[in-house]
Amino acid sequence: MIREAKVKDVDAIVNLINIFAQKGIMLGVSKAYVYEHIRNYIVVEADGKIVGCGALRVHWADMAEVRSLAVDPAYHKNGRGARIVTHLLHMAEEIGVEKVFALTMQVGFFKKLGFK
Question: Which residues pair with 56 in a beta bridge?
Fold first, then answer.
């Protein structure tokens, strides 16, 4: 289930993201950062826990960024990452943002989802 993040999810979000940051795959985040931007985050729940997250950060009237996309390695290969990105793209569309980009080291993943 995908839903908007709540403050009770901050620890899980930070832990998920920082798993990949420690591997040098993505930038890490602090609890303070996530608390400050909690309204940008969505989470995926499975088996009673947070197993994925992502954020949409608006940069300008027509441009937003997919950020902090992370899925617990035990839950990879089930399409959760793609569903998070799709949900974030719908959020962008709902608020009138026409262009969405991602700064990523996982270029192939985003290309499969139509990013150029």
Answer: 66
With contact defined as beta carbons under 8 Å apart, do 55 and 95 qualify? Answer: no
Overall pTM > 0.85: yes
Q: Please state, as a whole number, how many other Cβ atoms lie within 10 Å of the Cβ of residue 101.
A: 13
List the pLDDT tens digit at each of the 116 positions of the chain. 999 999 999 999 999 999 999 999 999 999 999 999 999 999 999 988 999 999 999 999 999 999 999 999 999 888 999 999 999 999 999 999 999 999 988 888 999 999 99
Q: Which amino acid is at 65?
A: E
Give the dihedral of Cα atoms 52, 84, 41, 69; nearest 10 deg. Answer: 60
Q: Can you tell me the distance from the alpha carbon of 82 to that of 85, in angstroms, rounded to the nearest whole number? A: 5
Secondary structure class of 88 (helix, strand, coil)? helix
Give the H/E segment covering residue 18. Answer: helix 10-22
Q: Where are the alpha helices (DSSP H) in 1-116?
A: 10-22, 31-36, 80-94, 107-112
Question: Which residue, among 54, 76, 67, 65, has the nearest Cα to 27 in the 3D structure?
Answer: 67
